[in-house]
Amino acid sequence: MAAEDLRLLPSQRRRVIDAPVPATQQPFLPIGRRTAARRAVSRATSKTVREHRQPVWQREYRRTIAVSDALAALVGAVLGWVLRFGEAPQTMGVSVAWTMVLLPPVWVASMLLFRAYEARFLGVGSEEFQRVLLAGTTVVALVGTASWAFALDVARGFVVVALPVAGVLTVAARLGVRRYLHARRAAGECMQSTLVAGHPAAVASLVRQVQRNTDHGLRVDGACTPDGTGTAELEALGVPVLGTLEEIAEVAEDVDVDVVATLTCPELDGPVLRRLGWELEGTRADLVVAPALTDVVGPRVVIRPVSGLPLLHVDRPELRGIRHAGKAVFDRGSAALGLLLLSPVFLVLAVLIKLDSRGPVFFRQTRVGRDGREFSMVKFRSMVVDAEQLLIDLRTQSEGNGLLFKMRRDPRVTRVGSFLRRYSLDELPQLFNVVGGSMSLVGPRPPLPREVAEYGADLRRRLLVKPGLTGLWQVSGRSDLDLEESTRLDLQYVENWSPAFDVMILAKTAQAVFGGRGAY
Fold first, then answer.
1. What is the C-alpha to C-alpha distance for residues 210 and 231, in angstroms, rounded to an integer?
2. Residue 500: predicted pLDDT
3. Distance CA 91, CA 252 (A)
4. Alpha-carbon distance 414 to 418, whole Å?
């Protein structure tokens, strides 16, 4: 179907999509005939139809991780036997032999029981690994209970080695497969066709976020708006408006999308969404609903039933308390260890900076920290000594995000400084600030006083926590981010901080730094 045909209303578009399509362009039935065929299928069999029509890549992905899970359990069993019994296979009891044979199928069955193969949990987020942990813990409990109940002679040493190894290998394999999936999605493959419904401005905001992050695998192929018309912003994003909010289900059938995403708006209230869910039962489209609090995620949001209504309960952000004290101890201890281990690197970089240009090795600058307190942030010098004076003449050439001055080819940056900035090596001395307590390993970007002077009420929430050496801004594009996205990421961190969130950001920082993307 041509791009101009997609902009027709469903009643007009049906005449176009029923036209014959060359076999070389359409490997399946034309969309109009597929729609008619789906309508003839009863709702009792619609689930089977949807499962049968899963995308090929999705079936291959689930098959791959199932095989990797079984192999992980088998390797764990073999290593457990080798480490426990060494070179004396004749000492292996019958119970251990049966455990080695049964562990892979039991392991996979446990993953299946805890829905670790369900499509909505695969490829993104931590839910997949939480289910893997629950499944592995269940297998440990089953083996222990069975050994006690039936007086089985299962060596404790074998179980202690086999099951943890199986768990670690399962997670490692799934991470590897997920990384491969993300690489394919970055190339435009393995994507889910998505129809977004809502007001044009909200649709455009969601489209921009989806296009920035391909890891989630959503490709927006169309939109439905209250009056069925679009805007120049949606047209610039390449998203055609295919119908009104009353025609969502019909459009989803005609275009054959994988996901229908509805945004918060008065027209899409509870009864409307309930009926929409019923209408989508005969299609393969999953219905997802974006709440008004899109940046509040994780354990802060839980379903709270009140008088039969599933209300969202939103906890207050955790800005003080024992976990923040633990974060401070971890930050200072890790930074001190990092300074010790990186001292040879510091020495080499200091020598290179001195040989490259005149001036001090370190550059100090006043930044604003938690609760608006100013502190002196230290970095390796990457610019000429009179960089601040030269900035006055360069302000009109800024490529930053409005508050922050940035230039891709800043004439003030030295040759060594360019290398330092590309791989964020100039920021290593901020470990001294972390040890001193003015900064954290993970947090919002430390702002300049002149930036803070222009903050509104929303931006000032960035000052509720310590600024970080790295953060969501570091792993999500760095200097390539515009002001709106940079602000959203910093506020998302402030609202949803947790130790697990910090660990995730630290793990992604190395990948972002070594890739050098968005650094200048």
1. 18
2. 80
3. 62
4. 6
